[in-house]
Amino acid sequence: MPKRPVSACAAGLAALVASLSAAPALALQTAAPSALDLALHGEDPAWSITADLTTEIGPRPAGTEREAAARRWAVARLKAMGFANVREETYDMRTWVRGEEKAWLTAPFLPQSLAITALGNSGSTGAAGFEGDVVYFAGFDALQAAPDAAVKGKIVFIDNQMKPTQDGSGYGYYGRGRFQGPNVAAKKGARAIVIRSIGTDNHRNPHAGVTNFDDGVKPIPAGAISNPDADLLVGQLRRIEAGAAAPVPLRMKLLLTPRDLGQQKSGNVIAEVPGSDTHASPVILACHLDSWDLATGAIDDAAGCGIITAAARHVMTAGQPRRTIRLLWAGAEEVGAFGGQAYFDAHGKERHAVALESDFGADRIWRVDFGLPDSAKPLADRIAAALAPLGVTRGRDRAGGGADIGALVAAGVPAIDLQQDGTRYFDWHHTPDDTLDKVDPVQLRQNVAVWTATVASLANSSDTELP
Amino acid sequence: MPKRPVSACAAGLAALVASLSAAPALALQTAAPSALDLALHGEDPAWSITADLTTEIGPRPAGTEREAAARRWAVARLKAMGFANVREETYDMRTWVRGEEKAWLTAPFLPQSLAITALGNSGSTGAAGFEGDVVYFAGFDALQAAPDAAVKGKIVFIDNQMKPTQDGSGYGYYGRGRFQGPNVAAKKGARAIVIRSIGTDNHRNPHAGVTNFDDGVKPIPAGAISNPDADLLVGQLRRIEAGAAAPVPLRMKLLLTPRDLGQQKSGNVIAEVPGSDTHASPVILACHLDSWDLATGAIDDAAGCGIITAAARHVMTAGQPRRTIRLLWAGAEEVGAFGGQAYFDAHGKERHAVALESDFGADRIWRVDFGLPDSAKPLADRIAAALAPLGVTRGRDRAGGGADIGALVAAGVPAIDLQQDGTRYFDWHHTPDDTLDKVDPVQLRQNVAVWTATVASLANSSDTELP
């Protein structure tokens, strides 16, 4: 498949992986390969899971028949790969689906069409759509500070441009425009809200994502336009201010017709590598199987499921671990981590040794953060030492886990974060561009190698180290 | 406006332009600035024309009211900039407009939606669309070699992946799938044709562009899907071949409803810098004002109009040239260079000293090619010497001009090609992504400086050098 030119960084990584592969390749002839050997130069189940799931199933919106089809696909694949106790655990959840979505800047310049997508839980404009005056806010804070009178009856626009960072740290700050902006705008009486996409790219692909309205607040139509479309909107506003057009408000026509389907079925898929010590608590590895509907969900999060499953498979192939490794392919993460909550509701009272999640793309792991009990210091040291040759530095942050293991970690389960390079992630996150071609097989292999080394250590850790 | 990180190449260019700017900046205090001085550190009309045209008018499809609005905008802007003899010259042309456009891979896997756009002059599927079997061809040559029986009644797919080159030289070869593929498929009895976009990117934005059917061949529906969508299609085909699904044909549903509006008005906009020698033949600088309809046409070709106009303006400001400089903002280039032909029909018998066109984006000029009479060797040497400090090498190809001056050059008018760097051009060409943010102001300034130095030489050349 066509690939963009590989970056210098990725080329260096390829050399690193190649150098690490050389010695074990010889070792293979005399001894059973280690799990890491398998990850570095064996089959690549992370790639094949990502490629097959995105090609054969594609978009997997939470609560829909497509997500159910993905669960059936996952069960079949995990069984075929030799995992044990493969099963679906379903639950019901309120389900929102996209309808038509169009927008235009209509005046005072010639009408121009905007690339827009509705935010999850957006209200509907009705089939006829409506037109209104645009009121500009530079960011979420400006909207929050505005008097209701400045917002009432208007189409709110929030303009905040996220920039790429390796650790993805801008998402929380800039993301407030999406997470909270619609709720705040609705409370102030706005007719609708349109935000600059929470994304770092410059393509005509808007970034979807969920928003939430407080109980009792009627959802207003809420959408995101692409960065170039936001630039256009700002350019027109500046020209109006500069007198290039009559001093009239910028007008937008909006058509968003999402629907609430009420309670629908969603579910988790669970699979295990049974440990040799049936009394030992399991290691939980999580990803999410659902995706947004605009693309095939390759980096979010087919690759995550591929990565954790490949790591577990390599450990299993190298020899039965002491602890059970449990894979959680969670449902309905995108719309509020319903799958993770359902897992916790069903299993939260069981013992868990440690939980990890892969849900930040398919690029290389660059740092490891620990959230382990003090008793696990030797274990953390072993893992850090094992990962250093793979180019992973030891971080100082306390590991927080991911959305699908959030309830477990909040309840005290230890966690490790294998930090993925997020520099490119928010170029594609929740857009039509989240497709297989964005996965770099060289970076993916390093990622799986890091996971494999980590899981091998965890699954063979002692009961004095982990609960 | 948000910008992507500037490349090392562009950063080096910025340093070059800065170094060239330093000395003339001092000279300004004692002598009138040269045209090149103005281009290097004066106002940047190329940027403002590109920004204003894309923001205030946007898409400008040939033969439509939007193109007419763009002509009115152009006349007003060119008059305001001080050009003389500013006028529209209109003509009638057959006009094709886009309708609905959707496609899905429907079987044997779960249905997946494809990002598709109709090719110019495509036929319609009718409002209901239709579904058919896909027949695969690796490239145009494979389609041409196929027996009619392999194609008849099918939806032809042509899969050829264009790669970036600095001189854009892949376009002619890979472009045959678009230029000729639909005509060949129609003659063989295909029901429709879908091609992999003629583009070098990996975004979910299909590349539009014109195709032509021979007289007497009924146009079939013809569309381009984005590169990631083409990857998906190929991925599904490979899985069918490998036995992952039943050995059945890949099915596609297609809905394309473009319409032919018959004869509509289009037109050129012409403006001049009058020369001091009324007997001298003029220098023609061309761009095109129309654009495809999916975006604002920033790189294709608002920037080209900005570049030639900035160069003419800088030469005019520095002092009246000997020859008249005539700007041709041509209409209807995208659908067959109707504006260039109309100019030739009206003015082809007049004398023209030389013709140049800017229609390959807004990136730096890296090479100059000449197509001048032998008498102009000293002139070519002067231009090559003037451009070398701007980072432009002298090429050995014979200049061929561009589409809008094609008829003039074919009739013997001398030409110069200022070759723009096309490495990024086919990432955005004819897609929804051809927007202002793709224009790099640093590269644009170098481009205008090169044009300005060239036009200053040409407009003051002698009658022994140019006809």
From TrEMBL, chains A, B:
<keyword id="KW-0256">Endoplasmic reticulum</keyword>
<keyword id="KW-0121">Carboxypeptidase</keyword>
<comment type="subunit">
    <text>Homodimer. The monomeric form is inactive while the homodimer is active.</text>
</comment>
<keyword id="KW-0378">Hydrolase</keyword>
<dbReference type="GO" id="GO:0006508">
    <property type="term" value="P:proteolysis"/>
</dbReference>
<dbReference type="InterPro" id="IPR039866">
    <property type="entry name" value="CPQ"/>
</dbReference>
<keyword id="KW-0482">Metalloprotease</keyword>
<protein>
    <recommendedName>
        <fullName>Carboxypeptidase Q</fullName>
    </recommendedName>
</protein>
<keyword id="KW-0325">Glycoprotein</keyword>
<dbReference type="Pfam" id="PF04389">
    <property type="entry name" value="Peptidase_M28"/>
</dbReference>
<keyword id="KW-0964">Secreted</keyword>
<dbReference type="GO" id="GO:0005576">
    <property type="term" value="C:extracellular region"/>
</dbReference>
<keyword id="KW-0645">Protease</keyword>
<keyword id="KW-0732">Signal</keyword>
<dbReference type="GO" id="GO:0004180">
    <property type="term" value="F:carboxypeptidase activity"/>
</dbReference>
<dbReference type="GO" id="GO:0046872">
    <property type="term" value="F:metal ion binding"/>
</dbReference>
<dbReference type="GO" id="GO:0005764">
    <property type="term" value="C:lysosome"/>
</dbReference>
<keyword id="KW-0458">Lysosome</keyword>
<keyword id="KW-0479">Metal-binding</keyword>
<keyword id="KW-0862">Zinc</keyword>
<keyword id="KW-0865">Zymogen</keyword>
<feature type="signal peptide">
    <location>
        <begin position="1"/>
        <end position="27"/>
    </location>
</feature>
<feature type="domain" description="Peptidase M28">
    <location>
        <begin position="268"/>
        <end position="453"/>
    </location>
</feature>
<dbReference type="InterPro" id="IPR007484">
    <property type="entry name" value="Peptidase_M28"/>
</dbReference>
<keyword id="KW-0333">Golgi apparatus</keyword>
<dbReference type="GO" id="GO:0070573">
    <property type="term" value="F:metallodipeptidase activity"/>
</dbReference>
